[in-house]
Amino acid sequence: MKTNTEALEKFRQRHLKYAVGNILKDCVTMGPILGFAVLYNREITWQGVLYVIVATIGYSLFTTSLHRYLHRKDKLHIPPEPKYSTKTYQEHKADREAKHKD
User: What is the mean pLDDT of residues 9-14?
Assistant: First the structure.
């Protein structure tokens, strides 16, 4: 189980740093949504695709800036740990097998 400081550090690494990986994660989640909205009733052109790419990168930079601002003002609320467990399926399976061996 992760400690609270490990969870905070992981959250900071993911949401408060301008890293290429963090920007790409936001782009992957927002890109299809914006792409569908922009290109739905139009034919697909390079100008539309470029607009979607620039808009998703701008969105990810904006959200990172917003998170950094809210964190600095101490208004960013970090989501709580899950109530029951953060174990993976393999860890649960290993625990069950260890209990059955006893």
Answer: 79
